[in-house]
Amino acid sequence: MARFTIALCLAAVAGPLAAQPTPASLKTPPPAMQLFERDWVLMNWALKYYDSNHDLLIEPDEAQAAAAAFRNLADANHDGRVTPQEYAAARADILSHD
User: Fold this and answer.
1) Any idea what the Cα angle at residue 66 is, between residues 89 and 34, rounded to 5°?
2) What is the total count of domains within the chain?
3) What pLDDT, in 10s, does the model give residues 25-50?
4) Is residue 51 part of a domain?
5) pLDDT in tens, 48-71
6) What is the DSSP string of 15-80?
7) Which position among 21, 49, 59, 61 has the lowest Cβ density within 10 Å, counted as fewest Cβ atoms?
């Protein structure tokens, strides 16, 4: 009886566990999309200037264009990298103009 109960419990748990998404099935947004999803200031800036179809959503190609423009805006010393200080300065600049 105990073996039957254990088998029944394992069978009940196996169904929901098998239905869980695997890491391979989860899609990670492109890095440009992630940038705008985590910062509301940059998202609003990107929507204002790079939402070419005016659907209030940033599509991957729009995000790429906006990320490139933000990189140019933020990279004050033109070394190809945006430091936390440059990021903060560019963000503050966006806030002061919009």
Assistant:
1) 85
2) 1
3) 677 888 889 999 999 999 999 999 99
4) yes
5) 999 999 999 999 999 999 999 999
6) HHHHTSPPTTTSPPPPHHHHHHHS-HHHHHHHHHHH-TT-SSS--HHHHHHHHHHHHHHH-TT-SS
7) 21
For residue 64, being part of any structural domain is answered with yes
Q: Give the total residue count for the chain.
A: 98
CA 77 to chain centre: 26
User: Is residue 6 exposed (0-12), middle (13-18) or buried (19+ Cβ within 10 Å)?
Assistant: exposed
Question: DSSP character for 81?
Answer: -
Residues 94 and 36: their CA atoms lie apart, in Å, by: 13
Residue ranges making up the domain that contains 88: 28-97
User: Residue 55: which residues within 8 A CB-CB, separation 6 or more?
Assistant: none
